[in-house]
UniProtKB/TrEMBL annotation, chain A:
Lineage: Bacteria, Bacillati, Bacillota, Clostridia, Lachnospirales
CDD domains xref list: ABC_6TM_Tm288_like, ABCC_Glucan_exporter_like
SMART domains reported in the protein's UniProt record: AAA
Name the record gives this protein: ATP-binding cassette subfamily B protein
Cellular localization per UniProt: Cell membrane
Taxonomic source organism: Faecalimonas umbilicata
UniProtKB/TrEMBL annotation, chain B:
GO molecular function: ABC-type oligopeptide transporter activity; ATP binding; ATP hydrolysis activity
The protein's name in its UniProt record: ATP-binding cassette subfamily B protein
A Pfam match: ABC_membrane
Record field: transmembrane: 52-73, 133-151, 157-181, 241-260, 272-296
Gene3D superfamilies for the chain: ABC transporter type 1, transmembrane domain, P-loop containing nucleotide triphosphate hydrolases
Length: 579, 582
């Protein structure tokens, strides 16, 4: 509850800039509700004037109807303006929140992104914000007017006749009780239904999603048997859930019918005694309907609002996540990097309880090639994370040309590395845009030159629109090797003094592979390069090979020394050719 | 939607009773204003207390009967809809399992999963809604107009004008806003795409220091989205005020015209009130119908998508008759005879003029770049696809002559993607052979180099595997899928690049174990690594869908340019030649 309060406060703060709009919306809401409630009175007056045969006072009818017409038009205008205000507030607030969330994404530490599933983060920025927006809009348009309508109706009814008003006040809450009673009962049924549905979905995802494997092993019959069992379960609990939940509407309608009948009977009795006019009775009947409507809606509005608050809280949590460490005020801006890298007593781990790198020392002279090898999951990419300062060290220092990287601006540090990762990432956009990524000012000639240097020009030329071919999301229309060549071209455009290369393990055809190798060679000339290596040819030519196992560098040296040492590297190397 | 109606066949009674009782309820609802009119005109006019109470009783009774009718309707509608959904699900599931690889490729498994789950749910609730409400709302509208005519013929004409006017406003606004809503949805999809892209590329974005540009692009997209939302909001905000205006405008006309009728004694005060009530009932029913149409169109779209799946039929016939053919020792295990293959909708053949034969017990290496047709080739052996031209023979007979299960039962395949299923390790291995004992399972695990890590688990074979095998490493998953194929002791084992996640040492041990312990098994080894297939009895080099060379390592080094290129790109000169000499 306390947490909710905090969230409400934050939501209010978001609405802050639009407070005049909100005020306007409230004013229009009051006007429209008041007028809506006034109309039945006028209609009642109108009916009262129609007393009977030959007794109709036409000028009076005309006067009342004229008034009614004005009231109706004003109601419409007020309602519409209120809706416009609400839309404006909601969509603007939502846009603000979304932009804030996205901005936070840009400064989040990689640690957060790596440790949270992508889908979860996306759903905070998209789905949760969307739900919040729906709830907000509903809150403005229905919650407030609903409450004003209930209060207004009460006042008007009590003003006309206290006893009949009491009948309405006493019976109406029954519908609330009935609704919440049913909701409680159906909750477990719905839970059962969604559990069974989840069970079914996961079976379907497995069996249909992997239909090829299912067929290859002839498991279809068995799968259908398992599916049918769940399907039958689902049938039983769905029927219960659907039926019992669909009781709500008829039941509340029934209660409304009771209210109507109650007003009808008591009203008729009082009208008979002359305490109220027939017109007033008709006005009461209309009120009885109007009064119950917000009551029926309010429970669903409240759940919606609670849901919206929960979503808002998740979004706020995200927006308030800690950011990447900020550059120190006196941080050095690197320029003219030579490429000397020193790791002094470096310690690092992703989880405190699982130590990974411990007291690591390494000196790399400018222009050297460092190959990092080892079995999968041994922490090869960890070094990339540390060099680029995607993660901060737990202990020790990394020195670049003698500057501790923690005392260097992140921008200038990252600018001095060119990075090609195994997991190629391209933006949806044209090929030229992708090569010029990060250097939007590059001319077409520069882009083509970079592509040529990366051996990518050939295949780009053969694409339907050449350099203007649009790449679909995640490069769906390119092969893995072509994507990698584009990533290389992207770095080629403005070659930084140091390189981080992550070789692809497989799935690149031989010719492209040769081209990638050539491009890598060209890039590495005279540049300090760190290569997560899988190709023996790359490894053999490296100045220093770092052999990693379980997060530690267990061997260090060039190909010949390491083979001569006859240790883990030698075993790894020879195993490939073992008969 | 309409093609799916037969699924209601088992629920004829329910599908009639549901709407019928709903109509009854509507009838009772329509009577209420008339009773109220009587209370006013007779009860109050004559100061007849017992009459008022009697009619009040009638009102309550109408409510009770209405409730009973509507509960009955809800129950039968729900029963019919749920039954409909259940049978549709069963049939669709069965239908999907009859599809061949070609059709699955065409539709995509992810799509099939959505059809099975959310689309069917959508249609099910669509059916439920239709049975409950689709008749009710129009009936109330028509009913209210008819009742108005019974009250007063001349005043009822006001209804005849008001109803179409209301409909035009409600459906007109819907028609205008639906396309804009679609645009809003597109805008939302766009910012979803941008967010996903930014998350996936977070390292590259930071390395290139383009956070500010990305932020600007996102802000621009959010702004466009907001403008579309405001535009559609502007129009749909007109709905309530306009309908209110029409209904109350009609009431004004009603009272004005009614004044003359009352004055001439043709209409009573009570009847006037009843007419006003009918006008309000019509509005509520029309709005309900509009909402219903929105959900109904969604259900229709889902139904259309489901029908698309049903419309796809398998292109592969499995002969029913059992092939009685004694395996002949002399027969070639696998023979490709001028095989050409083209994926559905593709112009270029994926395989052209592939001819080779493999004797029983041979180990065959298949090597080539991505897209060279390696996987396609091995997929033709268990008849996952049919050759477009030429023949594929298995054990001397055309693969098309075997009943499907029989053929596939003789083959153990390990696909590129290591797919495991929820359940124990034992259950997963038993996919290969349903009645495999633990002893046989361990034997297979041992060859697949998986025995050690399985035994290290506290529950060994009873270890639960989570969906997709996420609690295992990539290498462990691959080894289990290999064991799954081995456990059935197949005549032909196909390893389709299925050791890619294994380190060199394990890969080598695996190949050694397969070679030693499954002597009479014919093995196909598809790989990108030259080192993995160097020692095969026969190597098939694929290049762009064609066979570039067949032979042993030594032969191919001399004769096949493509093979040389592959070897020298991966191995050093000494390494290549070292094996040439052996």
């Amino acid at each position: 509850m306390k947490k909710n309060k905090g969230t409400v406060g934050k939501v209010l703060k978001l609405i802050g800039p639009y407070k005049y709009l909100l005020l306007l919306s409230l004013v229009f809401a009051m006007i429209s509700v008041a007028l809506t409630l006034y109309a039945p009175i006028l209609i009642g007056d109108g009916v009262d004037v129609l007393i009977g045969k030959g007794q109709v006072n036409f000028p009076e009818v005309f006067a009342i109807l004229k008034k009614l017409a004005v009231v109706i038009v004003l109601t419409c205008v007020a309602q519409w303006l209120m809706n416009l205000c609400n839309n404006r507030i909601t969509y603007r607030v939502v846009k603000d929140v979304r932009i804030k969330a996205f901005a936070r994404l840009q400064v989040l530490p990689l640690k957060y992104v790596d440790s949270h599933p992508q889908g979860e983060t996306i759903s905070r920025i998209i789905t949760d914000v969307e739900q919040f927006s729906d709830g907000l809009l509903m809150g403005f348009s229905q919650f407030f007017t609903g409450i004003v309508t209930i209060l207004g109706t009460l006042v008007f009814m009590l003003g006309i006749h206290v006893q009949i008003a009491l009948v309405v006040i006493l019976i109406t809450p029954v519908s609330l009780f009935v609704a919440s009673f049913i909701a409680k009962r159906t909750y477990t049924m719905f839970q059962k239904q969604s559990e069974t549905r989840a069970e079914m979905t996961s079976l379907v995802e497995e069996m249909i999603g992997n239909q090829k494997t299912v067929q290859a092993f002839g498991y279809g019959e068995e799968a259908l048997k398992r599916f049918d069992a769940i399907n039958r379960n689902l049938q039983t609990c769905s029927l219960k859930a659907i039926f019992f939940s669909s009781i709500t509407n008829p039941s509340t309608r029934f209660v409304n019918g009771l209210v109507y009948a109650g007003v009808g009977i008591t009203g008729a009795v009082f009208a008979m005694r002359g305490a109220i006019s027939v017109g007033q009775l008709s006005c009461f009947l209309t009120y009885a309907n109007q009064y119950t409507k917000p009551f029926n809606e309010i429970s669903s509005v409240i759940t919606e609002l609670q849901n919206a608050l929960a979503c808002a809280r998740r979004v706020f949590d995200f927006i308030e996540e800690e950011t990447e460490t900020v550059d120190q005020k006196d941080a050095v801006v690197l320029s003219q990097v030579q490429g000397e890298v020193k790791l002094v007593d470096v310690s690092f781990s992703y989880q405190p309880e699982v130590p990974l790198l411990e007291h690591l020392n390494l000196t790399v002279k400018p222009g050297q090639k460092i190959a990092i090898v080892g079995p999968t999951g041994c922490g090869k990419t960890t070094l990339i994370n540390l060099l680029m300062r995607f993660y901060d060290l737990d202990g020790g220092q990394i020195l670049l040309d003698g500057n501790a990287v923690s005392k260097v601006t992140k921008d200038s540090l990252r600018a001095s590395f060119g990075m090609v990762l195994q997991e190629t990432w391209l933006k949806s956009g044209s090929i030229a845009e992708n090569i010029a990524y990060g250097n939007p000012g590059a001319t077409r000639e520069e882009v083509i030159a970079a592509a040529k240097a990366a051996h990518a020009h050939g295949f780009i030329k053969r694409m339907p629109e050449g350099y203007d071919t649009v790449i679909t999301e995640d490069g769906g229309n390119l092969s893995q090797g072509q994507k990698q060549l584009l990533c290389i071209a992207r770095v080629m455009l403005k070659l930084p003094p140091m390189l981080i290369l992550d070789e692809a393990t497989s799935s690149i055809d031989t010719r492209t592979e040769i081209q990638i190798q050539k491009a890598f060679q060209k890039m590495m000339q005279g540049r300090t390069s760190f290569i997560v290596a899988h190709r023996l040819s790359t490894i053999r030519e490296a100045d220093v090979i770092l052999v990693m196992k379980d997060g530690n560098i267990i061997e260090q040296g060039d190909h010949k020394t390491l083979l001569a040492r006859n240790g883990f590297y030698a075993e790894l190397y020879q195993s490939q050719f073992a008969e | 939607m309409f093609q799916l109606i037969p699924y209601l066949k088992g629920y004829k009674k329910e599908s009639v009773i549901g709407p019928l009782f709903k109509l009854l309820e509507a009838c009772f609802e329509l009577i209420v204003p008339l009773v109220m009119a009587k209370i006013i005109d007779v009860g109050i006019e004559n100061r007849d207390m017992p009459y008022i109470l009697k009619m009040g009783g009638v009102l309550i009774l109408l409510g009770v009967i209405g409730l009973a009718c509507s509960l009955t309707a809800q129950y039968f509608a729900a029963k019919a809809a749920v039954g409909f959904g259940t049978e549709l699900r069963h049939d669709l599931f069965r239908h999907i399992s009859t599809l061949s690889y070609q059709e699955i490729d065409q539709v995509g498994s992810a799509t099939l999963v959505t059809r099975m789950t959310s689309d069917i749910n959508q249609v099910q609730s669509g059916v439920n809604l239709v049975l409950r409400l689709f008749l009710r709302s129009p009936f109330i509208v028509v009913g209210a107009v008819v009742m108005a005519f019974t009250v007063n013929f001349r005043l009822a004409w006001i209804f005849v004008v008001a109803v179409p006017l209301l409909s035009i406003v409600i459906y007109g606004i819907m028609m205008i806003t639906i396309p804009i809503y679609k645009k809003v949805q597109k805008g939302l999809d766009q910012i979803l795409l941008t967010t996903r892209e930014n998350l996936a590329g977070i390292r590259v974005i930071r390395a290139f220091r383009t956070q500010k540009e990305e932020q600007k692009a996102f802000e621009k997209e959010s702004h466009t989205l907001m403008q579309d939302q405001l535009r559609v909001g502007w129009i749909s905000a007109l709905m309530n005020p306009l309908t209110y205006l029409i209904v109350n405008g009609a009431i004004i006309v009603l009272v004005w015209a009614g004044a003359f009728e009352v004055n001439t004694g043709k209409v009573s005060q009570g009847e006037m009130i009843a007419l006003v009530s009918y006008m309000t009932q019509i509005l509520i029913a029309l709005v309900a119908l509009a909402n219903l149409i929105v959900s109904f169109t969604k259900a229709l779209a889902s139904a259309g998508r489901i029908n698309e799946v049903f419309a796809i039929c398998t292109t592969m016939e499995s002969p029913k008759s059992r092939m009685e053919k004694v395996s002949d020792k002399k027969c070639e295990a696998v023979l490709f005879d001028h095989v050409q293959f083209r994926y559905h909708g593709s112009k270029e053949p994926a395989l052209s003029d592939v001819t080779f034969s493999v004797s029983k017990g041979e180990t065959v290496g298949i090597i080539g770049g991505t897209g060279s047709g390696k996987s396609t080739l091995v997929n033709l052996i268990p008849r996952f696809y049919d050759a477009s031209e030429g023949r594929v023979l298995f054990d001397g007979a055309d693969v098309k002559a075997y009943p499907m299960e029989k053929l596939r039962g003789k083959i153990g395949i390990v696909p590129q993607k290591a797919t495991l299923f929820r359940g124990t390790i034992r259950a997963n291995i038993q996919w290969g052979k349903q009645d495999a004992t633990d002893e046989k399972i361990y034997e297979a695990l041992e060859i697949a180099q998986a025995k050690e890590f399985v035994q290290e688990k506290p529950k060994a074979l009873d270890t639960m595997i989570s969906q997709g095998g996420k609690n295992l490493s990539g290498g462990q998953r691959q080894r289990l899928t290999i064991a799954r194929a081995l456990v059935r002791k197949p005549e032909v084992l196909i390893l389709d690049d299925s050791a890619s996640a294994l380190d060199f040492a394990t890969d080598a041990k695996l190949r050694k174990a397969i070679a030693e312990r499954t002597k009479d098994m014919t093995v196909f080894l598809v790989s990108q690594r030259a080192a993995s297939i160097l020692h095969a009895d026969k190597i098939i080099v694929m290049d762009d869908g064609m066979v570039a060379g067949i032979g042993t390592h030594q032969q191919l080094l001399k004769t096949c340019e493509v093979y040389r290129e592959i070897c020298y790109s991966q191995l050093s000169k000494e390494e290549v030649e070292q094996y040439e000499k052996e």
